[in-house]
């Protein structure tokens, strides 16, 4: 199947970023790796937002993916990065398949609060688990990729870019598929969707489980890059951060999540550097400006420029 124009641009951008990493300082490579990994979790939030749901508990699957990587290496002796990531995806998918049976019954604030509640339950369990380091968490063991052990952050950087690109290409087609379009229809009018013979619960269930699996990938890659996991990955503020980035980028295109995640990472890094005691205020001002002037997110700027050129 030939690539669409936007998909070709995403491939070119990923290759350019990968090559630029060869000449970039280590701190920027690490920052970009985390931004791309978290953008995958944000894409899960965007998937739910496109169906009219807002999740404040996506940190649940982010944390499960991260802890699966940590526990896989520490307790089960798994070293291959792809197997570790797959472990996190399988665990998150299994839990999402159970929780989805309940959560797809609810909408609006009820859905948001329930997702946050389940995430905080995991946080509480991990805090009380002394074998998993309690509040301090634990370090991720040395990992490999097809037998190759990376000696620097470039290995996980390229791995994250590759997985991020594949997920972006997949979701771009998913949003254009019948299920993806049904999600948008459900957001507008659920009753009419049912009259068309489409099961809204089934569509929302598939969407929720898929968002969980993608969120777990982001958590797994974050654990590989940071080399450490802790219960804060499931805390509600982390889930709120993902919602913040989703609002910052908008739901217009999958690339928006990556752009917004990188902007968020840079803004927070420099805000902490120059205003360590009021960096939260800077992020709040940025969000307020986005809501006031770009209510549909940063991606709306690209749409405006496209309309201006046509």
Rg over alpha carbons = 19 Å
Q: Which range best describes the helical content: under 10%, 10-25%, 25-40%, 40-55%, 55-70% or over 70%?
A: over 70%
Count of helical regions: 13
Total strands = 2
Q: Would you identify the regions where 5 or more consecutive residues have pLDDT less than 50?
A: none
What does this structure look like?
The protein has 310 residues and is an all-alpha fold. The protein has one domain (5-236). The chain is built from 13 helices and 2 strands. It has helices at 5-20, 26-50, 59-74, 81-103, 108-127, 154-176, 178-188, 190-195, 200-226, 236-249, 255-274, 279-293, 299-309; strands at 138-139, 228-229. It has a two-stranded antiparallel sheet with strand order 1-2. Helix 2 packs across helix 10 (236-249) and helix 2 (26-50) packs across helix 11.
């Amino acid at each position: 199947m030939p690539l669409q124009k936007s998909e070709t641009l995403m491939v070119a951008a990923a290759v350019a970023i990968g090559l630029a990493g060869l000449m970039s300082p280590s701190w920027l490579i690490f920052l970009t790796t985390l931004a791309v990994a978290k953008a995958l979790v944000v894409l899960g939030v965007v998937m739910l937002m496109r169906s009219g749901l807002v999740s404040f508990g996506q940190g649940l699957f982010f944390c499960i993916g991260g802890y699966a990587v940590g526990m896989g290496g520490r307790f089960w002796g798994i070293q291959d990065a792809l197997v570790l990531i797959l472990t996190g995806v399988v665990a998150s998918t299994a839990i999402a398949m159970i929780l989805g049976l309940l959560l797809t019954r609810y909408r609006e604030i009820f859905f948001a609060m329930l997702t946050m509640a389940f995430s905080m339950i995991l946080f509480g369990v991990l805090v009380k688990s002394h074998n998993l380091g309690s509040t301090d968490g634990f370090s991720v063991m040395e990992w490999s990729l097809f037998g190759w052990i990376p000696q620097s952050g470039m290995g996980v950087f390229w791995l994250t870019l590759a997985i991020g690109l594949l997920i972006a290409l997949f979701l771009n087609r998913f949003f254009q598929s019948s299920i993806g379009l049904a999600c948008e229809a459900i957001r507008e009018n659920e009753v009419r969707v049912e009259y068309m013979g489409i099961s809204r619960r089934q569509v929302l269930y598939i969407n929720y489980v898929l968002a969980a699996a993608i969120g777990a990938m982001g958590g797994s890659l974050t654990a590989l890059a940071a080399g450490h996991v802790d219960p804060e990955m499931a805390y509600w503020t982390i889930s709120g951060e993902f919602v913040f980035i989703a609002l910052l980028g908008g739901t217009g295109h999958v690339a928006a999540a990556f752009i917004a995640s990188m902007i968020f990472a840079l803004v927070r890094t420099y805000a902490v550097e120059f205003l360590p005691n009021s960096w939260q205020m800077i992020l709040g001002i940025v969000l307020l400006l986005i809501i006031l002037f770009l209510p549909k997110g940063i991606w709306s700027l690209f749409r405006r420029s496209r309309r201006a050129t046509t």
